[in-house]
């Protein structure tokens, strides 16, 4: 008897578990944003890295629009700059809106789509799954940079394992 694995339906975790994992990271990143004093959020840097506010704008430019593109197939250019008036509260508001966008559009992504090849934002080739993993990995990377910033300011960052 021969058994064949269909790579388009095989999965280790469900889409719901992956979404919950990602949203756990997003909640932790939100708490990291909250931990920053307003001025430091927009101005504090180390070693030529950008302020955490710039990293957050990048994350906002990728996550919501990326999931929307995956769900609808409608591609827009990557935009990593959002109007925020140098107000951390505005970026937190946009963060929360993006969380809802992710939840809303996630429901439209069928399990068989996760292995589909895509060209996100018209330029980044991969699969739906690899793109989502990138969204998560990139957020973790920038949150790590933010932890270094917070520690350099004498602020204890949120516990990384509390998602």
What's the gist of this structure?
The protein contains 5 helices and 2 strands; from the N terminus they run ααααββα. The protein is mainly α and 163 residues long. The chain has one domain (15-152): Four Helix Bundle (Hemerythrin (Met), subunit A), CATH 1.20.120.450.
Question: Can you describe this structure?
Answer:
The protein is mainly alpha-helical. It has a single domain (15-152), classed as Four Helix Bundle (Hemerythrin (Met), subunit A), CATH 1.20.120.450. Helices cover 56% and strands 5% of the residues. The chain has five helices and two strands. It has a two-stranded antiparallel sheet with strand order 1-2. Strand 1 and strand 2 form a beta hairpin. The longest helix is centred in the last third of the chain and has 25 residues, at 128-152. The termini are far apart.
Main features:
163 residues; Four Helix Bundle (Hemerythrin (Met), subunit A); 2 strands; 56% helix
Main β sheet profile: 2 strands, antiparallel
Q: What are the secondary-structure elements, in order, as H or E?
A: HHHHEEH
Total domains: 1
Q: Outline, from the CA principal axes? A: globular
State the distance separating the first and last CA atoms: 44 Å
Strand content: under 5%
CATH superfamily (homologous) name? dinb family like domain
Mean pLDDT: 93
Record the strand order, biggest sheet. 1-2
Radius of gyration (CA) equals 17 Å
| pLDDT < 50 runs, ≥5 residues | 1-6
* CATH topology heading: Four Helix Bundle (Hemerythrin (Met), subunit A)
Helix/strand class: mainly alpha
Q: Helix fraction?
A: 55-70%
